[in-house]
Amino acid sequence: MSNEPHNTPHIGPRIARRGLLLVLSSPSGAGKTTLARALLDSDKGIHLSVSVTTRPSRPGEVGGRDYHFIDQAEFDRLRESGELLEWARVFDNSYGTPRAAVERAISEGHDVLFDIDWQGAQQLSEKLAGDLVRVFVLPPSGDVLERRLHTRAQDPKHVVDARMSKAAAEISHWPEYDYVIVNTHLEESIAGLRAILTAERLKRERLLGLSDFVRDLQSRL
Ligand code: 5GP
Known about the structure:
Elements: E1 5-7, E2 16-18, E3 21-25, H1 32-42, E4 46-48, E5 52-53, E6 68-69, H2 72-80, E7 84-90, E8 93-98, H3 99-107, E9 111-115, H4 118-128, E10 132-138, H5 142-152, H6 157-171, E11 179-182, H7 186-201, H8 210-219
Parallel strand pairs: 3-9, 3-10, 4-9, 5-6, 10-11
Antiparallel strand pairs: 1-2, 5-8, 7-8
């Protein structure tokens, strides 16, 4: 995947850099979607990758914003024609990341945020390791997780129960991530996530324009 130079935002002179791909994973109910929305609202330099899914939409979800809701035949077509950057079966439904939208966002100079599970994070790690920043979100306790899943109340009870029992399996993947946020207080978690993004944007190896900048700087000393 091509990765056009970006600019370092906010800090110091404009130095071209590679765009980054920020992956957020967690068990359902840990607050990941809320965190993702807060980050997107507060930082216009990062765009959400909108996945395709065969899951039916929940009340309040909007096609094209939360997901592209498609049927299994269309999903299979996208997968077989290589139009998905990664894909996985989660809770008996298929989910995948459309490749073209990610490439477009990167080429337009945006970083990209992914709300995907550990299977997707592993596939992106194999393909795009250098551009990837992986963040895992944990609930502060099992009780809080169960309460959040119940109060969300948009899924039938058997779905909530299935998600609770899958949480342990998902949580077991935490060591595969670069950062872990324990989501006790939302505001603190958002601040942590923003700090991760700021620091990762400043990583030396992403700053493609740094050699030229330093050479120019040295020539004037
Ligand atoms: P939900 O049905 O609650 O929206 O999502 C269920 C799980 O699927 C979440 O962990 C979410 O992060 C994950 N997910 C959503 N989109 C994708 C995707 O495109 N790829 C992968 N691998 N997982 C996804």
